[in-house]
């Protein structure tokens, strides 16, 4: 019975401390937020869809498995914001040793929605999971954008 009283006392104390802790006012947005009032500026309104005059590159979500000596084709696509009708030049970087990345076109034309990219692994290509970066550069104006995709090079056989 004495133990039950001790447990009940501890629980009561915990509830009282929790209630007192709830009285503290934290800034909107949680701990670490610096704004003290409601921000009604346009930048605080969440964006739905693609912003005007911008684009986004879409790559495979999962790693593409590729054996040494094998060739595979993946598809890259583009999501265009309102008023974005430019060609987008594609640049690839960070391919591992022995892996060649070759798009069917060096850019995604303003009327196109996707481009095929050939991945070729040499017979001695570096094994393991690798990350390749694709950078899209607008032909006329606007910010470039980069996205990465993964390939997993496995031993042939």
Please explain how this structure is put together.
This protein is mainly beta and 157 residues long. The chain has a domain at 55-154: Immunoglobulins (Immunoglobulin-like). The chain contains one helix and nine strands, in the order αβββββββββ. The strands form two sheets. Strands 2-9-8-4-6 form a five-stranded mixed beta sheet, with no helix packed on it. Strands 1-3-7-5 form a four-stranded antiparallel beta sheet, with no helix packed on it. The longest helix is centred in the N-terminal third of the chain and has 20 residues, at 2-21. It is flat and about 50 Å long. It starts with a helix and ends with a strand. Mean pLDDT is 82; it is low at 22-27 and 35-43.
Describe the secondary-structure layout:
Layout: H1 2-21, E1 55-58, E2 64-67, E3 71-80, E4 88-93, E5 99-103, E6 107-108, E7 114-121, E8 128-138, E9 145-154
Parallel strand pairs: 2-9
Antiparallel strand pairs: 1-3, 3-7, 4-6, 4-8, 5-7, 8-9
Key structural traits:
about 160 residues, mainly beta, Immunoglobulin-like, 4-stranded antiparallel beta sheet
Structural class: mainly beta
Helix-strand string: HEEEEEEEEE
| CATH topology label of one domain | Immunoglobulin-like
Number of helices: 1
- Strands, count: 9
- Proper CATH architecture of one domain: Sandwich
Helix percent band: 10-25%
Uncertain segments: 22-27, 35-43
CATH class of one domain: Mainly Beta
Q: What can be said about the biggest beta sheet?
A: 5 strands, mixed
Our measurement of the CA-to-CA distance between the termini, rounded to an integer number of angstroms, reads 71 Å
Strand order in the largest sheet = 2-9-8-4-6
């Amino acid at each position: 019975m004495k133990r039950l009283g001790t447990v009940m006392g501890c629980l009561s104390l915990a509830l009282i401390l929790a209630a007192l802790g709830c009285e503290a006012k934290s800034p909107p947005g949680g701990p670490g937020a610096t704004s003290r009032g409601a921000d009604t500026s346009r930048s605080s309104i969440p964006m739905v869809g693609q912003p005007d005059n911008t684009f986004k590159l879409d790559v495979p979500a999962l790693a593409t498995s590729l054996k040494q000596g094998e060739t595979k084709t993946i598809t890259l696509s583009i999501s265009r914001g309102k008023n974005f009708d430019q060609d987008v030049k594609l640049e690839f970087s960070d391919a591992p040793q022995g892996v060649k990345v070759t798009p069917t076109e060096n850019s995604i034309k303003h009327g196109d929605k996707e481009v095929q990219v050939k991945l070729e692994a040499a017979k001695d290509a570096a094994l393991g999971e690798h990350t390749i970066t694709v950078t899209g550069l607008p032909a006329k104006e606007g910010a470039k954008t980069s996205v990465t995709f993964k390939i997993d090079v496995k031993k042939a056989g």
